[in-house]
Design a protein that fits this description.
Distance between the termini: 31 Å
CATH architecture of the largest domain: 3-Layer(aba) Sandwich
CATH superfamily of the largest domain: NAD(P)-binding Rossmann-like Domain
Largest sheet: 8 strands, mixed
Helix content: 25-40%
Length: 255
């Protein structure tokens, strides 16, 4: 049995995960951490203090806020607990805390735990190697009106993968939006973000040239696609050596 604690248990993703873990005979939900002290369904205790439950957990899963991720990274380091995190919008200092934790325990960080998105990354790498000369690349990310960050962490990940594969400097090539007059198209990879309605998540990557276009799209139809990926990571992380991992490692997609 793997004992799991959820940081951000009262959020949308936290609640979906709690339900899935409770249904899994090989997992035990030992408690949750959030900004309110209360009880989740099935009378699972929710605390504001990670130290109260981390001692009982084998793995900590984090879908909270940037500040919540920073706090749980410090607590996981203190208690020597593996961390799986999908929180987006981290500052450089907050991201550094996650990476420092990985020096002592295994950490899986992904801005999208969908199996489809991670297969998409593999497909994009192969596509970009062939189309890196002569094709322009644009990314569109579409999410519900309540999403707090733009562009999405997934869109940024896709852009970085494309830039690396195409031999471009990330800081120079990746551009958020396009505005101005007399603009000239260079080798930039531009991300456009749409926010509205109840769309869970859609990412489009467009390869365009003068003679043809190739459009690759992934749509998440429910949050279950993310939950399935997190469950895989929960089963994978125990016994791993300290280090920084992504879902590409969990799914054995890395070359």
């Amino acid at each position: 049995m793997i004992r799991v604690a959820i940081n951000g248990i009262l959020g949308r993703m936290g609640q979906e995960l709690a339900s899935a873990i409770s249904r899994d005979e090989d997992l035990i939900l030992v408690g949750g951490i959030d900004t309110l002290e209360t009880f989740h369904e099935d009378r699972i205790a929710v605390t504001t203090n990670p130290d109260e439950i981390l001692g009982d957990a084998d793995v900590v899963v984090d879908f909270s806020s940037p500040q919540g991720t920073a706090t749980i990274a410090r607590s996981c380091r203190q208690h020597h607990r593996p961390l799986i995190t999908g929180t987006t919008g981290l500052s450089r200092d907050q991201q550094k805390l996650v990476e420092q934790l990985a020096e002592n325990v295994p950490v899986v960080q992904s801005f999208n735990f969908s199996l489809g998105i991670n297969l998409l990354i593999d497909i994009l790498q192969k596509t970009a190697r062939v189309l890196k000369d002569g094709f322009d690349v644009e990314i569109i990310d579409v999410h519900h009106r309540g999403k707090k960050d733009a562009p999405s962490g997934t869109a940024l990940t896709l852009a970085r993968v494309l830039a690396q594969t195409m031999g471009l400097n990330e800081s120079q090539a990746i551009q958020v939006g396009r505005k101005g007059k007399n603009l000239k198209r260079g080798h930039e990879i531009v991300i456009h973000s749409l926010r509205g309605g109840a769309i869970i998540g859609e990412h489009q990557v467009h390869f365009l040239c003068g003679h043809e276009t190739i459009n690759i799209t992934h749509k998440a139809l429910s949050r279950s696609v993310f939950v399935d990926g997190v469950l895989r990571a929960i089963y994978w992380i125990p016994g791993q050596k300290p280090g920084y991992y992504t879902m590409q490692d969990v799914l054995e997609l890395k070359a």
